[in-house]
Design brief:
heterodimer, A: 395 residues, mainly beta, Methylamine Dehydrogenase, Chain H, five-stranded antiparallel beta sheet, four-stranded antiparallel beta sheet, 0% helix, globular, B: 105 residues, alpha+beta, Ubiquitin-like (UB roll), 3 helices
């Protein structure tokens, strides 16, 4: 029987919410990694029992965890306890929490600094993994988007990580700058039709694309307009919050920028605004219906100072026309005295016949709509602040 | 200077790192050579490789900013990592404490 497994990362641990295809009754497991920030968890579509998790802490740094049994048990995919941590030649074995920027003259050159908050230049410093994107075909291959912004890849199930340094080597790095959440690479989209094409997005640099498997990258920000950079139409510097794609149309992208909801019909080469009648075009999440590629979802957020939903009402907005015309979805969501945020990785869609939509809030609620947004219900109400939500559709 | 046979050093880790290493309570770890913060961390990471990068940086070997090293009611955090540990730690009378700064929530 079909079902879903919702992977929830929070400020204080991970939770796994499971249900059958009706998505009415839920089993809650967790907290896993209690007390740690879980920035993101995502399952492999090539092996749904394999789940990768980013466990992180301002005190203790970055840990990568992996489950091979659907989230029941977890291990760090590094050297087991008791084994030597160095290879016979004396070189350190690559441990699963080791993310080291490529500084080699050949491939890591030349980028060493980015713009700091005050406009001065600042060296790249690894802080955490924001997003893990497993390959759709190879269970042992997974990409990591990190802060300070860079993309890493593991081909051995998360044991060792290597930077795809062509992104930082693009040459625009001195113009990249951190947003309020840090200078993070938070979005990785692997083109399902073209294994050499990857899209990424960085706050605050913008969106980038590779067409050669990660060797070289180009910024794809034409059409974006950002008042908070000296030249609002600059090639880089835009605070992109999220990019989403429907797998059936990999050339069509939707973007929630700091302000403005955007779409591109040519793989990011050109963007146009589709904010339309939204009450505010600021927000973090954006996602696309699994079966209707012109149906998209956002959660407008009051900004710049507040970062909670408008008018105390938690409303998801849906467009069935690929943008511009939006309707508020409110049934089952609090419509007064609500002041939560929905962070950029905290919305997901399943691929059951009736597409389910999920999102988590900074107030610790995770909501589900089993009918594409018409009706909503809380799965859980009282988790720690939710950082990320992903869903696995199980057959 | 010869330090003779390996010493057993008592170590107390913060709860998050005890959980990560699947241990409970105080650690008793054999340390070869001069007992210093560096040699203790070398031994700790060799026995518990999952702790690599959690106390000191993988590459620079610098102490992570929010972690501190205490022993015998003294703060050793800003000492050279090659300074010999206090005699009471070397003799096993006192533990080396590795702990997180009181910050955040």
């Amino acid at each position: 029987m079909s079902g879903v497994r919702v992977l929830v990362g929070t400020r204080k641990g991970a939770f796994i919410l499971s249900s059958d295809g009706k998505r009415e009754k839920w089993d809650v497991s967790g907290p896993h990694f209690a007390g740690w920030e879980i920035y993101h968890m995502k399952g492999s579509s090539a092996n749904p029992n394999r789940i990768y998790a980013s466990q992180t802490s301002g005190w203790f740094g970055q840990i990568i965890q992996r489950s091979d049994d659907g989230g029941k048990t977890w291990t760090q995919p590094g050297t087991p306890p008791g084994e030597a941590t160095t290879a016979p030649g004396g070189t350190p074995k690559g441990e699963s929490n080791k993310f080291v920027y490529d500084t080699s003259a050949e491939s890591g050159k030349p980028l060493t600094t980015h713009q700091w908050y005050d406009g001065t230049q600042h060296p790249w410093e690894f802080k955490r993994v924001w997003h893990l994107e497993p390959s759709p075909t190879e269970p042992d291959t997974v990409y990591a988007g990190v802060e300070d912004a860079a993309i890493f890849r593991s081909k051995d199930g998360g044991k060792s990580w290597h930077e795809l340094s062509g992104l930082r080597g693009h040459g625009t790095g001195p113009k990249w700058q951190p947003g309020a959440g840090g200078m993070c690479l938070h979005t990785i989209i692997l083109d399902p039709a073209n294994p050499n094409r990857i899209y990424i997005a960085i706050s605050a640099a913008g969106a980038f694309r590779t067409d050669d498997g990660g060797k070289t990258w180009k910024p794809i920000n034409k059409g974006l307009y950002s008042q908070y950079i000296p030249n609002p139409t600059e090639e880089v510097g835009h605070c992109v919050h999220r990019v989403a794609m429907n797998k059936s149309r990999p050339n069509v992208l939707f973007m929630q920028k700091h302000w403005d909801v955007m779409r591109s019909d040519d793989a990011g080469d050109n963007w146009k605004e589709v904010s339309g009648n939204l009450p505010t075009d600021f927000g973090f999440v954006i996602d696309v219906h699994a079966h209707e590629p012109e149906t998209i979802y956002v959660v407008p957020i009051k900004s710049d100072g507040e970062h909670y939903v408008h008018e105390g009402k938690l409303r998801v907005y849906r467009s069935r026309t690929g943008g511009n015309e939006w309707e508020a979805l409110t049934k089952g969501l609090p419509q007064k005295d609500c002041y939560v945020n929905v962070l950029r990785d905290a919305m997901a869609v399943d691929s059951l016949d009736k597409c389910g939509i999920y999102f988590g809030t900074t107030g610790g609620q995770v909501y589900v709509s089993p009918d594409a947004g018409d009706n909503w219900a809380p799965i859980v109400r009282d988790l720690p602040a939710v950082l990320s939500v992903e869903v696995q559709t199980l057959s | 200077m010869s330090w003779g046979p390996p010493r057993k050093i008592r170590i107390i880790l913060p709860p998050h790192l005890r959980g990560l290493a699947h241990i409970s309570g105080e650690l008793l770890l054999e340390v070869a050579g001069a007992p210093t913060v560096r040699s203790v961390l070398d031994a700790l990471e060799a026995t518990y490789p999952m702790l690599q990068g959690t106390i000191r940086d993988h590459v620079t070997q610098q102490r992570r900013p929010f972690l501190r090293f205490f022993a015998c009611e003294e703060d050793l955090s800003h000492e050279s990592p090659d300074t010999p540990l206090p005699d009471a730690v070397i003799s096993g009378k006192e533990p080396l404490l590795i702990l997180g700064a009181i910050a955040g929530g």
